[in-house]
Structure formats: C-alpha cells, structure tokens
Amino acid sequence: MLWHSFYGLTCSIALFVFTLSTFDNSTSECSDFDTTPPVIHVLGTVQDGGSPHIGCDRNCCRNLFLRPATDRQVVSLGLIDADNGKSFLFEATPDLPAQWHHLQKLAEGKMKWPDGIFLTHAHMGHYSGLMHLGREALGSQGVPVYAMPRMMQFLQENGPWSQLVELKNITLIPLQNEQRVQATDALEIIPIEVPHRDEFSETVGYRIVGPSRSILFIPDINKWDQWDRRLEDELRQVDRAYLDATFYDVDEVGYRDMAEIPHPFMIETMDLLQELPQKERSKVHFIHMNHTNPCLDEASAAYRGVRERGFNIARLGDSFSL
Predict the structure, then answer these.
(1) Does the global pTM surpass 0.85?
(2) Which of 191, 225, 241, 313 could form a disulfide with 216 if both were Cys (CB 3.0 to 4.6 A apart)?
(3) What is the DSSP string of 62-93?
(4) Number of domains in the chain
(5) Does residue 20 fall inside a structural domain?
C-alpha cells in the first residue's frame, strides 16, 4: 500500500511538472517565435551609371559588355516587414524592373507593388527608375513616393515626372529633415540631410529603425568634414551602416576633375574610422561603387585590404534583420 501511495504521488508530481513545462513552452513560442523582424535586403551596390559603364573601354567594363554580370545593379535597398505585410524600396534606380521583381520574390508573392519608395536625391541613379511606373510601362496606381521638399518640387514641375503625378501613377509624400516616418508599427524611417551636389534637390540619407536594430544608409555625400555631424557619432547609434564608396582612392579616375565629384574615398573613410574598436568598424558596409572601383572585384587586393582593416563591402543579396 505504501509503495502504491508513493508511486501515485510521484506520478502526480511528474504530471504537474510536465503540464507546467508545456505551458511555459507554449507561452515562450507565442512571444519569441510568432514575430518576424523586418529585414533589409541589398538590391544593388553600384554607382548611378552602372557597370559596365557607358563609354568605358577599360578592363573593368570591356568584358562585362560581352558577358554582363548579374550582380551589377545600381544602389538600392529593399525593406520587408512581413508581420505588417509591408514592403519598401530605397531609391528608384535605372535597374528598377529587376529590383522590383527581386523584392516581390522576397515578399513571397504578397507584394503587388511597394508600400513606399524613399528617394535620396535627384541624381540619375536614384530617381530615374520612376519612369517605369508611367503609362508606357507599368501604369501603376498611387505608389507612395517619399521625397524632401525640393525633390518633390522637381518631380511636380518637370516632365516626364510631372506626368506621373498628374496621372496618379505615384503619390508624393513630403519628408522633412530628421522628422520620423512611422512606416509600420515596427519601423521608423528618419531622413537626414547630407551635403552633396544639390543641383536639383537636397540630398538625404536615412536611419531605419526596427524593433531591435537599426541601420544608416548614406549612398551619396561630399567629404565627411563637410557634414555638420561626426560620422563616428552616427555610427555608434546604429547596428549597420551602408556608406558611400563611390571611389576607392584618388588615382582611380584619371579623366575627371575630382573636385566636381567630391565623394569621400574609401581609404579616407577607413582612415577616419581606423581607431574605432573592431565592433564599430565592422558595422560599415561600403556601397555605391563606381564602375572603376576595384572593390567590385572580390579577388582584388583593394577588396582584401578593406576586409583586413575590419570593414565590409555590401553585396547584392545581403540581408540584415532589424
């Protein structure tokens, strides 16, 4: 009788522990596994003119005209918030059809078109892809396009972009410097003005803030010392930074006056940040590389040197959870 009582008590305790354990596990699954964080996807890494580049007969382009590389897309990011059923593009590049298609695949067929396109400025690689939304191509309906005041005015007052507005292919949504856009319940997008060649519009980068992590996206800027912020401070506020890497060094483009295109050389950016801890340097993912930039070739000494110094180079297909 004593054995049976002890056995029954043991079974009861075991059942209670099992039930409690099962309850705890189900609670954990609900809180930890039912949520999918927003994800940033790299859809392009090349400077406005693309690669191969018009008029270029150098080795960097000659063979690409014969055998185009599928990873040479103009700089763009895609952003998918699966839980809220939203997707966004950063930049409307000349490669918009391929990048749009790529984003649709990443969204697993749940995206007819993006819930917003965020523009940085009015240079050809960053907005000219909007032409694909017009009546000659997609004939879209009310695609939200986020733009700063001068950028909005440029689109409204100059054809063919003004026709996109008039036919309601796009809906312009105004941005203001440093004013947050609540893109979804899980995403904040903050435009940050940067100095650049602003012939037709101001230029912004973006800080994109998710539930757990954030990124900085500055594909175009003049020299870092012309900015009213310290790059080191901005880097500390984010978990990853996609930064202007148009040119590797001054010797790269011998036929242009570099004063007309005063981007920070990659070696300058690395020198500026070299004394930071490795954790901070590794946040940098260089993007927006000119067709002459040797870092487009992963076998190059320049590419290896960047990695050895603790920095990274963005690649088509890279992703980062927020």
Answers:
(1) yes
(2) 241
(3) HHHHHS--TT--BSEEEEEETTTTEEEEE---
(4) 1
(5) no
